[in-house]
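User: I'm curious what two different proteins look like when written out as structure tokens. Can you demonstrate?

Assistant: Sure. I'll show them one after the other, since each token string lines up with its own sequence. Here's the first protein:
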Amino acid sequence: MLAPVTAVAALPHHALRYRWTILGVATFTQAASAFFVQSIGAMGVHLEHDLHLSTAQLGLLLSAAQLAPLVGLLVAGELLDRYNERWVVGAGASIVAAALALGSMAPGYASLLLVLLVVGAGYSTVQPGGSKSVASWFDESQRGLAMGIRQAGLPLAGVGAAAVMPVLADAFDWRMTLRVGSLVALLGAIAFMTFYRSPPISQKGVAARTHTTLKARLQMFRRPSMAKSVMSGVCMISVHSAVGVLTVLYLHETASLSAGRAALVLVAAQGAGVAGRVCLAAWSDRRKSGRYATVMTCMMAVTAGMMALITPLGHSPVTASVLFVWLGFFGIGWYGPWIAYVAESAPPNQTGFALGLTMATTQSAVILAPPTLGLLAVEARINRQAILTRENPPPPEFSLLQDEISLTRLTGSPEIMKEQLEHLLYVVERGTVTLQIVPSRGEHVGNSGAFTIATLADRTEIAYADMAARGLSMSDPDDIATLHRNLMSVRSLALPVDQSIEMIQKVVREKWT
């Protein structure tokens, strides 16, 4: 149990009221400090396009912000047990603000990675510092609720960032989002240093505090409660990372939602996470089986949600969106009861170090999950392409009509364009794909948008058409007939296969080499 909170019940009435101010300030400071980092997933499409990033590189941006806390959380925990949270947390939030301001002048991806390392170092004090400050002001009967509200700061930052940052990136550029993130973090630092006060605990409680060696403190790992905290934390924080990084990309690529609509689903998932952190933590205050049982409930819920997402249900825009909101509620909401459990399991007068140690351990999952998930997404795309080159069962017959302008329109970098076109030549020369280039000759029905017609094994046909808001699947015979007529009209304008190959080779040689 926490030694600093033993005197909470004896606080004067005005102090009991002021603890809600402490809770509000701690929540705002966490949200403000995490504001930019929480926007990286929502800006995934913009960052991939503007900085020419792969999904794995996008995930690495999040990992960079989480790398410094591996050590920083341990240092922060020690500082919090020795010094006033007011200055430790305020200094950390100020470092976040300064780093983001400098990052707005970064020349490219590598510099942005370095900036996010510094951001992570500053944020190392905000997370355990805010949790300790709230835990010291609230007793057991309301600590879960208070911790849940406090931990709602992170998904609150995600909600605000997902709603605001993509709009700023569209209107200005990604550098403007760093400037805004810097300003918000600075406001958080000022608020905490202005309003935070330590709880008026007894002098006896203060005198009882002693400083132990680092080796002695690390013995916390032998406590069963700490082992359970670490194992569950590593699992659940991986889910949290997946929701933040892959929601928009998954819904855009798999469920055919536009980037804007997918970002709105991420906002809804983050909002569900806010509700989850408060509701689940409050539930843990009243649950006879304890706070850890609530964490286990969350683990079972997210397992069910992820299993549903990898079934055909995950390809439906509506069902996939609902599943991500479900994952947001439990996959983000778990943190409220979990952090309260960690704080209450800490040895007397070592709350800060216990929080820092547990969070530092779970940082391994925070760091590894985003790039790992990004690599898995890339691998899934590669596996889809392997359908065209497989031997058993035989690959499907694939006929493609491609606009000439797509050969010369820069997507990514010249190196990427060269590799893409060379790969296209490779699959065509293997005979698995039939490709014809449609010369740019003004208006024709193909200019209205791309579409695909697929013939299934039983000879029934379905079609898919790209639209501004989202893709549209069709199986109505009249719709299929219309698309067949459009296909014949466009094919009549296309070059023969051999001339199409020669055109691609010429473009690669003259423009992209």
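Here's a second, unrelated protein for contrast:
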Amino acid sequence: MPGQAVKWLPRSDIPPGPHVIHTTVNGRPLVIAELRGWLTQADERGGADPDWHFHLELDTQWMRTAGINPALFCMPGDVFRDAAPDPTQARRRTGDFGIHIELDGWPRNDERAHPAKPDDWQATDLPSAKPGVTYAYDPRSYAASAYADTAVAVHHYVSIWGALVTDDPHAADRFVYTNELLVNGLQALRVMLDLDPLDRDKHVGWVNYAAKAANAWIWGGDRAYADPLNGARWNEIHSPDSFERLEDKAPDRKCYQVVGCARRGPDDAEKTVYRTVLRGPEGANPGSVLRYRRSTTRWTTPDAAQVSVTVRESGPDAAVTVEVTLLSQGVVPKDAHYCELFELWWETPVKHVGDTWITTRDANGDWVPATDLGAALGVTSVVTNATVAGHPDRGELQVALITNGQVLHAARDTAGTWSPAGDMTGAACLPLGIRAVASAMLADASAQYVALDADGHAWHTVRRPDGSWQDAGDLTAALGVTDPVAWAALTPGTAGDDLDVTLEVFTAVQPVPAEDDVEVARHPIVRPHPSPHVVSKVLHTVRRGDGSWDPVEDLTVTAGLASTVRVAAAHNPNDQSTLLFAVGRDHRVRSVRWQAGQPVARALDLSSHYWTGAPDGAMPAVAATPDGHIQAAVLTTAGQVLHGILRPDGTWTPIGDATGAAHLPAGATCVAATSSAEGSANYVVIA
């Protein structure tokens, strides 16, 4: 039926388009529109009204594609249509962004008088409807859609065509009660009406009348109810011509209208502060963050509202908090209105290789969920390699991260506070183009670093306990190593100020950057790997406390590590042993353990003995804890971090999934490890 000139007014201000049709019927303007969204009410409420009621939560993304501006669509009356459960909220309310829908029933007696029953209306005497009421179609089913056999129900995603109108505030004669409610409060209204507080039905009924009148007064001001700019009016589709159920989809946005009006008082500068907390839609994926879009409407008085928006992006308390301060600009409340639309949704950050994460496996064997270390350090560029070192007796940590060939450094104190990332390349006079770095902290709180450049040179530097840096020196030249170094592993030595250094070198002049270089790790970021035609060697040396270096020892033959491409090492202070943890070109994981002054044993193939069936390995990391256990991590070719422990009796635990246990992102490209004095192990992962 067309909009009636007093009660129902067509939304002629919504621009015409494919989904909004402007026309006239019987000389009256009519707007027929399509809206899409999710049903939140789909049943007859009874009472004197014969109409069948629905409510639709609107799909704002679809509205924009259809050329319907959600902010223009908003009416303050939409959230005040039902009386406030708390009358003190008459001036402020947060409500879902939706539209009320009423399917006309016949016979009727309203502003349209007593129209005759249309001949094609046949749906009569429906269960739960008023006896004798007839409808144009059965509102319980989708008669004209592919879901004709499906009952109309809440949560269905539907398309509705019908007359788009605004309805009047439904409160024409309650001014005196409203005034008493707003000025003197609910208790005064009870006294005026002589209401028994125990008579709940009468109490609720009269308060609802007063609250509806309050809405009309506050949001309409001196405008007539028939004025389309009366903000107390609300949107309706009345009556819907068709319902069509569409393919189900979950609401991916949660939309709210936040409205408020300054309290009128003798002080023109009186403030009304309204704080509301908005939650995102249900079904957030792990790792997603909360985003919002804020749209102002024509109902907001310019310069009358100060709005503060804060966001907690993730976690169980994720929410958008809106605080509105409204300034009364005189005795007419309409001068201080606020109405805005907020749309909330979950967004999964774009995953790019190069984010840096840190996690801890504590002394009880529990994993601490991984946190974004790069964000904590202020590192925004892609990280390609990392190392971490912990003090053997205190909780201090140091990390070095490589980004664009530059080495960044940060330290964590015993209180757990990280310093901002600083330029280690400049501080230690390292060459540009560093591609990998290894580290260890000694008992004197110095940190030793070996950095590898693109030409295969290894550079050694020290961060002294006072935070100053020793200029980097060419370690390959000092040791007489002429082959290019592919990888390095550092660990404290037997004496407190000694440093064990293990280098994995190629016997070719330089690494061969062939396509098969990525065969081992399947991640170009951890290059270079040796070509199948290049033979690798594992060399070992010790830096003494006086700064001298022991002669280089070739472990390749004695330990059986000829196919090694990645090494990691840890020193166990309990028995003064060193564990070398290696991944071979064949993707198998091997370990070598020796004690000072004793011959190096043959490598143990863990992939055959303890970690049978484990995925192909790509990169190792290892840390010794004070209880005599050595914790090992292996990055697989698929980017998963696996974890196992070497017990003091020489046996290994079964391999476990550290990626899942620590809530690490998938697709890791680098892993590094160190231990802490309290028995935990810390892991830095690039993913």
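A detail about the second structure: Confidence is low (pLDDT under 50) at residues 265-269, 507-534.
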